[in-house]
Amino acid sequence: MIRGWDIRLGTTGDITLDAARRAEALGIDSIIAGDHVTFHGYGNDALITLTAIATVTEQAELKTGVYLLPLRHPVPVALQCAQLDQLSAGRLVLGIGIGGEDPHEFTSCGVDPRTRGARANEAIEILKRLWAEDGVTYEGRQFQLDDVTVYPKPMRSVPVFVGGRSDAALRRAGRLGDGYTGIWQSLDRFQQAQELITEAATAAGRDPADVELGMQFWTSVADSRDEARAVVAEGMEGTYRLPFERFEKYTPYGTAREVAELIARYVEAGARHINLIATQATPEEAVERTAEVRQTLHELFA
Fold first, then answer.
1. 258 in a domain, yes or no?
2. Are 58 and 29 in contact (CB under 8 A)?
3. What phi and psi values does residue 272 have, to the nearest 5 degrees?
4. In 7-115, which residue ranges form alpha helices assigned H by DSSP?
5. CA-CA distances (angstroms) from residue 266 to 157, 217, 220?
6. Is 152 inside any structural domain?
7. pTM of the entire structure?
8. Containing domain of residue 71, as a range?
9. What is the tally of structural domains in the chain?
10. Is residue 147 part of a domain?
11. CA–CA distance from 114 to each of 99, 102, 216 (Å)?
C-alpha cells in the first residue's frame, strides 16, 4: 500500500509517484491505495490516487484496499473504474469494503451506516452489469436504475475483491466477489472463512475456485521486533484510535524474515494474494521493506 499525498502531513504527490515507480522497479506485484472520505477527518480517494499512479507505471496491478463502495452511488463509480481500467490497460482490481468504524463518515456523506452492507451488495451487482451491458434497469431497495448505459467500459469486467471479517462479508464474497481479502484474522478464522465462502458460492451456483483468497496485513519491518512494534503500534493507534493490543496478534512485525514467516502460514492455508500496509518512516522505506518481505516469501517457498 502506497500512502496518498497530503502536504499537511509531509507527503507530496511527487513522493507518492516516486514510491510507485520504485515499487514497480523492485518487482512488487500490486500497488494498493487505501480509501476514506472523512475517517475521523482524514480522506484519501483510492481511485484518484491510482489514476495518478497508473500514469507512471506499466505493469503493476492497481488495487483499492479497500474502497468504501457504500459511500458512493454505483453509476459514477462504474464510469471512474472503467476510465482507470482503460488508462492502465486492464490493471485495476476493485477491492471493496463497507467500513463503519467511524459512523460519522457515513452520515457526513448522507448515508445511513445501517444500510452499508445492503448498499454494497446492490452496488456490486450494478457495477458488474454496467461494465458488461447497455440499458441497465435495476430495482433494489437501495438503488434504482432506469435504462442506464455507461461508456467507456473497462477493458474487462474489473475484478471485485471483497474485504472484511464478518460472516456477512464472507457471504458477499462467495455470492458476488471475484476475490476475498481478509484482515485481522487468526489462521483458524481464515480457514473458517474459506469454508463459509465456499458454502455461499455453491449456494449461488458459482464455482468456489473462482473466488481468489487473500489477506491484508498491517506490518513494520526493522532490525528488531521492539523497534518494529513501536512503529506499527503508533501507526495503527493513530489511525484507528484504539490500543494496539487489539490488533497485535494479527499483525506481523520484526525483521523481514519474521514477518514473512508469519505470512507464510496463511499462504500455506490458501492465501493467493497478500496486501501489506507497511508502516515505515517514509513511503520510499515502505516500498523497500515490502520488497524485502516479498523476496523472503519467495525464498521460503522456493
1. no
2. no
3. -110, -10
4. 13-25, 46-54, 74-87, 103-108
5. 28, 11, 18
6. yes
7. 0.96
8. 1-158
9. 1
10. yes
11. 11, 12, 25
Match 457471504 to its residue by C-alpha cell.
171
> Peptide bond before 158: cis, by omega within 30 degrees of 0?
no
| Residue 202 CA to its chain's centroid (Å) | 24
**CATH code of 132's domain:** 3.20.20.30
Joined grid coordinates for residue 250: 494479527
DSSP 229-262: HHHHHHHHHHHH-S-GGGTGGG--EESHHHHHHH
Note whether residue 182 is domain-resident: no
- pLDDT tens, the chain, 302 aa long: 998 999 998 999 999 999 999 999 999 999 999 999 999 999 999 999 999 999 999 999 999 999 999 999 999 999 999 999 999 999 999 999 999 999 999 999 999 999 999 999 999 999 999 999 999 999 999 999 999 999 999 999 999 999 999 999 999 999 999 999 999 999 999 999 999 999 999 999 999 999 999 999 999 999 999 999 999 999 999 999 999 999 999 999 999 999 999 999 999 999 999 999 999 999 999 999 999 999 999 999 98
Cα 213 to the center of its chain, rounded Å: 13
In angstroms, the CA 171 to CA 196 distance is 7
Paired strand residues for 146: none
At position 27, the amino acid (one-letter code) is G
Enter the C-alpha cell of residue 164. Answer: 472484511
